[in-house]
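Ticket #4471: structure export looks truncated?
Reporter: QA, pipeline team
Priority: medium

Steps to reproduce: submit the single chain below to the structure queue and open the exported record.
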Amino acid sequence: MKLLSGKLGVVLVALSLLILAGCANTFSELVRSKEEGKGKSRVYKVNVDRAWEIAKSVFQWEGTGDIRENRSEGYMVIKSGSTWFYKVNLMGVWIEPIDKVQSRVTVITKSKTSVDTFLGLSETDFHEMFALFAQGPEIM
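Actual output as written to the record:
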């Protein structure tokens, strides 16, 4: 019995490390995708500060959970937890100034499953909600 419990402990530790490595890889993939120009980008007629607040409002409205903000780098990330149907899901939003009154908002989602959604909030859905909150015409 002692041998079985020792093996079980090793297996549990190994699984925990794999899960943690999977989370880190997902975030790395998210950043790499942004650097490769992937994701959905749109330009809005709002300044960077307003765009930042709107992006947070979209996440809060959708009830996606904890928002990890990195304002100095110009992005925020939302990480969803695991459910029976989904594993770790990340959505990153990058906000870049075009000029004093316009901002480019880029959204990228990554999932450790084959499902390409973010628990109901896709890249397209995010932009639709963002445009609604911005209450202004989208430029591109």
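Status: closed, not a bug. The export was complete when the record was re-opened. Leaving a note from the reviewer for reference: DSSP finds three helices and five strands in the chain.
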